[in-house]
Amino acid sequence: MKVTQEEAEAYGTMLVAYGYIYPLQNHRTLVMCNDGSLYRFQTPYFWPTQKWVAEDCDYAIYLAKRNIRKKGVLEPFEQEHYTHLHTWLNHKWDFIVMQATEQYKAGKERKKPDRVVLDCQERAYWIVNRPPRRTHSALDYGTDRLIDSTVEEKISFDQHRRMNIFYQQAIMRSKVKSSVSLGALVKFVNTYKNHDPFLAPCLPSNPWVTDNDTYWTLNIRRVDLCTKMRVERWSFSFFELLSDQRGRDDFKSFLKKEFSGENLAFWEAAEELKWGSTAAIATKAAVIFKTFLAPGAPRWINIDGRTMGLTVKGLDHPHRYVLDGAQTHVFLLMKKDTFFRYLKSPVYKEMQKRALNPEPHNFSEAQLEQNARSRSLGVHPITVWEQEEEERAKAAIASAPVDVKAMMSKIDRK
Hints:
This protein is an all-alpha fold. It is built from 20 helices and 2 strands.
C-alpha cells in the first residue's frame, strides 16, 4: 500500500479489531503483531458490514455448543458469560441446548479441517462482539450499537424542551476569540515561567538534587523573612496571596491597620467550615452567624441583602457549602478593592525591601556526596501542623472582638 510500517501496523490492527482478520495462536489479542504470528481472513458471513445484531440467544447457543464439545471446560470469561446467560435466558434454555446439540451433530459430519476452520471463525466473531471483561472492543459503542441505524429515532416533547434550553444557553454563553485565549495563555506562561522549577532553577539549589534543604527552610509556611520570588508571586493574583499562609498573614496585618479585617476573617471561617470535620458543622455555622451575620454582630460583614437573606436562610439547615455565595461575594470585594490597595501599601513595599535573594549554591562532587551522607529527617508534618494550630489559636484570641459590657462589669466588680 506504499505506507510506512507504523501506518501498516495500525491499519492491520484495525482489521483485526473489527474482525476482518483473526489471529490463530493468541485469539484474545486483537492486535496485529509484527512477529511472524499467523492470521486468517474472516469469512464475509461474519464481517461487521453485514450489520447483524449479535444477540444473546445466538451467543448462548455458541457457548452451549462449546460446552458440549469441550465437556464443560470453558475459558474463565466464557464460563462467566455462560452462567450469566443461563440465568438470564432460563425460560428458553431447553431450546438453546437443543439448537446447540443439533449444530454440534451437524458439525461432526463435516471434514476435520473444515470443522476446525469454522470453529476458529465463530470464536473470532464472538471475541470481537462479546469480548472478555476489561478488554477494549472496537465495536463497543454502548447501547447505540444494538440499535438499527436506519430506523428514525423518535424524540419526545421533553427531549425537545431540554434541547431547546441547552441551545439557548449555548447561544447566550460568552465566546472568546482564539487570539485572545492564546494571548492570555502566553501572558500566563511569561508570568509564571521564572517560578516553575522545571523551567527555572530553584534558589539557592534544588533540594532533590543537592540534598540541601535550605530551599525548604526559606519557604516554610510561616517564616519571618520571605524570598523575593515568594513575595513577587503574591502580586500575580489575589488567589496566590491567600493560598500562601505567610502572604495571608501579611495581608491580615494590613487589614488590621485599616480596621477592615472582618472580610478576611469571614472568608477563613467559611474555608474552615468547608474543609472541617462533619461533626462540627452545626457548631461552626452557629458561631459564624453570631460573629458575622446576625444583626448587631461584633464583626458584621457588608454584603448585599439578597445574598445575606439566602445565606441566613441556608443556615437553618447548615452544610459544608452553605456560605459559598457570601464567601464569593466577600472574595470579589477584597479582590477588586483591598488587594490593589495592599499592593500599593507600605506594608507590602516593606516586605519587598526585607525579602531575601539567596545566592545559588555551587556544590562540588565531593560536597554533593557529603550532603547525601549527612542527610537527615525533616520536621514531622504532624509537628508542623500542631505548631500552626497553636499559632492560629493565639492569633484568633488576639484578634477576637472585645466585649465592652463584660469588661465594664468586670471592672465594676473589682
